[in-house]
Design brief:
Largest sheet of chain B: 6 strands, antiparallel, barrel
Structural class of chain A: mainly alpha
Largest interface: A-B, 56 and 60 residues
Distance between the termini of chain B: 67 Å
Shape of chain A: globular
CATH architecture of chain A: Orthogonal Bundle
Radius of gyration of chain B: 23 Å
Largest sheet of chain A: none
Order of helices and strands of chain A: HHHHHHH
Helix content of chain B: 25-40%
Low-confidence stretches of chain B: 269-277
Shape of chain B: globular
Strand content of chain A: under 5%
CATH topology of chain A: Arp2/3 complex 21 kDa subunit ARPC3
Number of strands of chain B: 12
Number of strands of chain A: 0
Mean pLDDT of chain B: 77
Number of helices of chain B: 4
CATH class of chain A: Mainly Alpha
Number of domains of chain A: 1
Strand order of the largest sheet of chain B: 1-2-5-4-3-12
Number of helices of chain A: 7
Oligomer: heterodimer
Distance between the termini of chain A: 28 Å
Structural class of chain B: alpha+beta
Low-confidence stretches of chain A: none
Mean pLDDT of chain A: 84
Helix content of chain A: over 70%
Strand content of chain B: 25-35%
Chain lengths: 170, 277
């Protein structure tokens, strides 16, 4: 429980700093990756369902601090995509490459759902497909290094050090 | 942890929790909730911290990367003096910045209301949610629901205010709406965002009220915008989906993705003299 809480805090803190960075580099001519979505994809593939649901709720809270969006919209879409990732990870053997592909495709699906749900309520606008694809592609490119960082740091939280085990053996 | 959560409970979660969340999600963010006050203060602080060094990067980009074409042209014309050419690039950028700020200052002097100049420090992290963060907050006199303008026209209005920064809901956001007039026919309607590059003007009574090319301006009736600020130009006109009224699609006069400096309308001046329309 304590380790799960520590792991959750670590994910959210990282997401908080990276989301702030994403918003501040708005002036760059290139699209920036959705770092937060890579983190969502990572824990959806690696963690149990209850952890994912709690993480999604907390994550939506963090993201709403950097957006004019209401809290429930990101929560709703993240839950759907996160649940899909979870089912996929339960059915197949997955590794970092699957998480990276899921982050890219999930990012595209996020924009599509955003456009569709807004369209249902406010009327459908011309979709910015090129912008969605470029953002999703950049997210996919940035996913492998971030997944490796997340993976190595998360392992440190969860596993005991070898020297401790050796001490126990002695 | 995973075993205690079975599939039936998962399905129940999605059935019972998601539809209400969806209805809530499609509502307008009308006020600052508890989660906003807790999280937005550190978020705004973080954005200001990042702004400290991103501003320098932005200046460098404006000076060099965005002017590569001009730099190349100067290089071809003045091969013998490349160092001088690069200096001219820098001076050119300062000159354009000077002109832009002077225009903004002149514009500020002519306004019937007191305004506060602010710099954009961050953008919304979701592509479809159109909002900006500026570097002025309640300590500078900014309050909720104050109009934000640029030299090109109306930009949006403030929705969340922290001590040293504020969030602006852009008119291109589908949750934003302001009262507006067709400048030529004086027909009234409500302008709201449709996409990042398109607005929509609703509730016009007749098809003749607006045609392509008509200028849409603020009506001044909403309170936080003075009358007569440019909003956009009508691109096409047609009946609304319900058939009760007419609606126009509008191309904004302000390029929202290129905004660097804006003015917040903080209060009325002593006398409003500009009833030009």
């Amino acid at each position: 429980m304590k380790k799960s809480l520590l792991s959750l805090t670590f994910f959210l803190t990282l997401s908080f700093f990276l989301s702030g960075l994403q918003g501040s580099f708005y002036f760059l001519p290139l699209p920036l990756p959705h770092f937060w979505f890579i983190i969502v994809a990572f824990y959806s593939f690696q963690k149990p369902l209850l952890f994912i649901l709690i993480a999604n709720l907390s994550h939506a809270l963090v993201l709403s601090a950097f957006s004019a969006s209401s809290l429930a919209f990101p929560l709703f879409v993240i839950n759907i995509l996160s649940f899909s990732f979870f089912i996929f990870s339960q059915r197949f053997n997955t590794n970092w490459s699957h998480i990276s592909i899921a982050a890219g495709l999930g990012c595209l699906a996020f924009h599509l759902l955003d456009w569709f749900l807004s369209g249902l309520s406010y009327g459908f606008a011309t979709p910015s497909i090129l912008s969605w694809i470029s953002t999703s592609f950049v997210t996919f490119l940035f996913a492998p290094p971030l997944v490796h960082v997340l993976s190595s740091l998360d392992q440190r939280v969860y596993y005991e050090r070898i020297d401790t085990l050796e001490n126990l053996r002695i | 942890m995973g075993n205690s959560w079975n599939w039936k409970q998962t399905i129940a979660f999605f059935i019972f929790f998601i539809p209400p969340l969806l209805f809530y999600a499609l509502q307008k963010k009308a006020s600052q909730g508890l989660q906003d006050t807790i999280l937005q203060a550190p978020a705004h602080w973080l954005q200001q911290f990042y702004d400290g060094f991103t501003h320098k990067i932005q200046e460098s980009l404006n000076s060099y990367v965005y002017l590569i074409g001009i730099n190349r042209e100067n290089h071809e014309l003045r091969v013998e003096n490349s160092r001088l050419a690069s200096q001219m690039q820098l001076l050119e950028e300062y000159r354009s910045e000077n002109i832009r700020l002077r225009e903004l200052f002149k514009f500020q002097q002519e306004l019937p209301r007191q305004t506060l100049a602010a710099r954009v420090i961050s953008k919304d992290i979701f592509l479809n949610e159109q909002s900006l963060t500026i570097d002025k907050g309640s300590l500078d006199g900014v309050r909720r629901l104050q109009g934000v303008i640029s030299a090109q026209g109306a930009v949006g209005y403030t929705i969340e205010v922290e001590e040293r920064s504020s969030r602006i809901l852009l008119l291109s956001n589908h949750n934003a709406s302001i009262d507006a007039l067709v400048q030529r026919t004086r027909a009234r309607g409500v302008v709201s965002g449709l996409s990042p590059h398109t607005y929509r003007m609703n509730y016009m009574m007749r098809e003749e009220d607006a045609t392509a090319g008509d200028l849409i301006v603020t009506s001044g009736r909403q309170g936080f915008f003075p009358k007569g600020f440019n909003i956009g130009v009508v691109s096409n006109m047609g009946p609304s989906p319900t058939g009760v009224s007419f609606q126009a699609k509008i191309t904004p006069t302000v390029k929202m993705d290129r905004l660097e400096n804006v003015l917040v309308i903080i209060e009325k001046k002593i006398e409003t003299t500009s009833a030009k329309l």
